[in-house]
Every structure is written in structure tokens, then in C-alpha cells.
Amino acid sequence: MTLAVSVMGLSIAAAMLALILASLRRREPVVPESDMTEALQDRLWQIAESEERYRVLVEATTQAVVQRDGQGRITFASEGFAALLGMKPLELIGSTLTPQVIERGAVEQRADGVRVVEERLVPVDGVPRWFSFIEMPAAGTADGPSWLRAGKDVTERVEAARSLDEAKSRAEAANVAKSRFLATVSHELRTPLNGILGMADLLLETRLDPEQRTYVEAFRTSGKALLGLVDGILDFSRIEAGRLDLAAEPFDVAALVEGVVELLAPRAQDKGLEIALDIADDLAALRVGDADRVRQILVNLAGNAIKFTQGGGVGVSLAQAEEGFVLTVEDTGPGIPEDRIPILFEEFEQGDDSASHEGTGLGLAITRRLVERMNGTIEARSTVGRGSTFRVVLPLPAAEGAKAPGAPSLAPRKVLIVAASPFQAPFLARRLSRSGAAAVVAGSAEAGLDALAGVAFDALIADRSLGDAAVRRLAAEAARSGVRCSLILLSPFDRREFGAPNAAGFDSYLIKPVRARSLFDRLLEPRATPARGPTGAPPQPAMAEPAAGPALAATAEPGRRVLLAEDNPINALLATKALERLGAQVIHARDGVEALAAAEGKGPFDLALIDIRMPGLDGLEAARRIRAREAETGAAPLHLVALTANTGREDVAAAFAAGFDGFLPKPLNLRALPGLLQRRAEAA
């Protein structure tokens, strides 16, 4: 640039001389020589000032400037560029010298022909430094176009960026290592837990006195709590490692939510809480997404609500939304302080900062990440002392052909609901109102009796939690008032204690949490006397009551032969005893090699349970070799079921890819064995 300014000054001087010569040719009056000299001196002074100003500007903004002709020879060099070579600018003119380049960085080619490059140079002092150069074409000569290059030292910026990149890479590597460590530890924890919980189930099937049974149930409950923590840690490690893949398969979200609520009902009812469900009639229930992860989201939210609520209950709602569907979980718990809501979904955070809560505080963090992976949103609202509400919107598309089922019309029936209930009664009233019925909720037996005396109702629904005497009085008053249908609301525990509903004056009963199908079936069934079972009780609703315990029923045909490949002696003992109780003959192999030998020399077997992780030859390779041998010999395929404490989607996929027909996670659910053996017996 300095050279360009100098050339400009010379051009001006040449122009002045040309003007003098032109005036002489035209014989115009010539300016006196003294005046001309003074004018030229002024002009040259101005040019010098301009040149100095531009030189200072260039040197202030760039540290190294060099211009080369088409042969690469230097035609101009700044002090900064010359200093890189330990020389003076004039010493470089005509040379092709350049600092040594030991590394090249980013290159940016612009549309106007300008190029930006980053190079790591070794100056004369031997300390490498990064420079960012701007290269642009300049006026050419007979030797070709020349290039002007101006740059500045960017060592600090480049090294800072590289340090950040290296720190990020180290952090990511550490995170992956941590996640692998957690996954391994989680697996190793699940293996002994399989033995603890399985042996507890077996022990509960033996003759125990009440005190012994209490102790066994206590360590079984503790084992399940520990298993929940392990599962949470494993899920979190998968999410952090980016190994959590979401399925995109059709599933019935209404059936899924019903199942979760019924699964959690015994836990809530053990605490004296109610749990209720309301599903909108206009919901298109068939969706495309990951059913297991939607279930996990709901279990986390509703499970937390039960955990922290001491009185009242938990309400779960499922509704249609423009962008998908909405899951809402409400409770009557202690509430969450407003200042903690923003951090509620962070790792290791809970509703308050006390140390009295069980758990890792990962549940809501995992829930938030799952929701975000599905491109959904989650929010929380809470009032201290009155409860909390969690609302999740999941934009999962409706499956092809999905339609809202609607609901039967109950217009113009009038239904009285008598219950001191924060959720079940309002949900029933909401559902009935959507079907055209007029629903009235009374919060006490006295209010219900007053309502029956003043209005002609078609149906009565009374909650047994009001007390046996109170609900009997309501049933009697309903009969006197001409109420067509009287129903009693019972929990599964109430069902066993209350006896035959008709003996108390009721036509039938509903099990809490109430399914819409059961509600409409009861209200729409004919008035005729209901059929009685062996005990005189009316038929049970469609909802299954929870099983009484981990009983193993000997449903399989005796003599079924089972190959069990399991290296852990406790888990092998557990599975062997459980299978033998079902009448099976068990052949135990301690590793994959023994499993292969047994499959070839001690068969045939009706079933093979093979652990995935075994020393030497693992379960996956054992399955592959069994399938390969079957293909070679034409033998009948052995039914292979994988046993593993690794329960991720990729683990399931790997098992099926290896040739397994089924997959059983650890801790082993002993209740799954009878059905598995029975299915094999039927197939045989």
C-alpha cells in the first residue's frame, strides 16, 4: 500500500510536468518558475503527508506486508515482514525470500478474488507463530500479475481456539468413558440383584412365619428400590453418551397410559392415595413413536407424584393437542417452592434442597431429555401446600388410519357421584358430561342423601372410602328413590373385603382407577338382575386385579427339558429351582462352550435360556454357532431365549440378530417362566 501511494505521488508530479509542456506548446503564458516550484513543493509535501498517514495506518493494522511480482520477487516489504526474516525492507527488494511455513490452517476464497489464509511461520527468532494473511491481486507487469499480502499475528486466538477444542475433546472422551463405566457398573449391579430379588420370590413361596415373611418382603422391597436407582443411572449414562435411540413404531397411547396408571395403583393405594385417569374422547390413540420411552416419562412423573404426596391423590389426563397429545399429571402433594421450579429438571435436583428424599434426582432430568429427544415440551406449575402439575406435550404423529373412538351417548341421564375425591370423582363427572349425561358430585354421604331426596337420578356411583355404613345408606336411599343403577367404587383391596355388592344394595361395582369401558358397560347394561358367580358376586369388570404375590403355578407339562447357560452360580441356582418347581428338567452349562456341547450331546431340549455375558464364549456367539449347526445338519431349531442385565434397545437388537427367539432381562421375572414353558409345550 505504501508503494501504491508513492507511485501515486510520482504520477501527480508527472502530470504537473505534462501541463507545463502543454502550455509551452500552446504558447500560453508561462507561470513564473518560482511560483511553479513553490506549488510543486506544496503538492509534494501533501503527498508525503498522505503517504506517511497511510503507512502508519497500514502498520497499525497489519504486522507484515509484502508485494511480489509475477516471478515471486519482492517489490515492496514492510518493516514487520522484514523483521520476520531478520532483515531490512530494502534488503529484500528483488529477492524471493519467505519465512518457513510449518503448518497451514483454514483457507477462505472470496468471490472477488481475495483469499484469506492462516499459516504457522517460523520467524528468525525460532518461535513459531500463527499469522492470518489477506492476499489480493495488484497491478501486473510484463512478468505477470503481482500479489499483495498483508497479515497479522493471530497466535493467541488460534491457540486459544485449539485449547478449547482439545478441552472439549477431552471432556467428550471422559464423558464417554464415564458412561461406559456406569453402564458396566450398572450391569454388574443388576446381576447380584437378580439373585437377591429372585431368591426373595422363591423364599416367599416357602413356609414362613409372619415375622420371617415381613423380613423377606422388606429386603425384596429394598432390592426393587436399588434396581430402580440402577435403571435410572443406566438410562442417564445412555442419554449422555448419545446411545439412546428412539423407535418409530405404531402404539396405542391410551392403552399405554391405562396400563401405567393401573400398574401404579397398588403403590398409591398402599399409601391411602387415589390415582385416577381421564382420557379425552376425541383422542386419536394410535401414534407413531417409542412406546417404551413414553411409558418411562409417565412412570417417572406419576411415580414421583405418588412418592411425594401424603394425602389426597394423583390425577393423570391424556388429551388431544394440535401438535400431538398432552399428558398431564396432577397431585395434592406438598408443592414445590417457586424458586426451585427452574432447576427442577436438572441432574441430581429434587423438589427441595433437603437431604430427606430417596433417589438420585435423575428421574426428572431423564424425563426432560426424553421429552426433548421427541421434540416435545415439559413444564411444571406448583403451589406450596396445594400440589403440583406437570404437563408434557409430545408431537408424535397419528398412525395411518387412526381415529378417535368417541363415547356412547348417555343423554339425558342424570348421574350422582358421591365421593370425597380430588380426582376420581371429577374425572368421572367430566367423562359423563362429554357423553351427554348430567353429572353431579357430592363430597360426603350426607350431601349425597340430600341430593337423592331432591333430584330424580338415573344412576348412583358411591365410593366405598366413605365407609361401609354410609354407602349402604346411599344404596338404600337410591333404591327408594327409583334410581335405576347403583354402583360401588372399590379399590382392588376393597374388592376382597367388601364382599358381594348386591348384598349391600348395589347392582355392580367399578374398580379404581376406573376405565371408561367399564363405566359405560355398567351404566348401559340392562336393568335385569346381574348374573352371579360362585360366590354370589356379579361378574368382575374387564380390569384385572393385581396378582396376590409372586406365586409360581406349575402350568407347564412336566418333563420339559431346559438348557440353562449361566456363569453366575446364584443366578443359575435361582433359575434352576424356579424351573424345577414348574416340572422342568434343567441341564446347566457354565459357559458358552459347555452350552454348545450340551446342545449337541445332551439334547433335544424344549427351551434354552442363555446368558449373554459369559467368560470365554459369550451368549451371542453361542447362539450363532447353534444356529449355524442347525443349518448344516437340518436339525429342528432350538427355542433360544437371551438372559441379560443389559436391557438397551441395541442389546435386544443384537440378541435377535444373533439368532435368539426371545429376550428376558435381569432381574429375572419368575412369573414369565410358566408362560414361556407353556407356550413351548403348546408349540410342541
Structure characterization notes:
The protein is 44% helix and 21% strand. A 6-stranded antiparallel β-sheet has the order 2-1-6-5-4-3. Strands 8-10-11-13-12 form a 5-stranded mixed β-sheet, sandwiched between helices. Strands 15-14-16-17-18 form a 5-stranded parallel β-sheet. With 684 residues, it is of the alpha/beta class. It folds into 5 domains: 2-155, Beta-Lactamase (2-Layer Sandwich), CATH 3.30.450.20; 158-240, Signal transduction histidine kinase, dimerisation/phosphotransfer (DHp) domain (Helix Hairpins, Orthogonal Bundle), CATH 1.10.287; 249-394, Histidine kinase-like ATPase, C-terminal domain (Heat Shock Protein 90); 414-524, Rossmann fold (3-Layer(aba) Sandwich); 561-683, Response regulator (Rossmann fold, 3-Layer(aba) Sandwich), CATH 3.40.50.2300. It starts with a helix and ends with a helix.
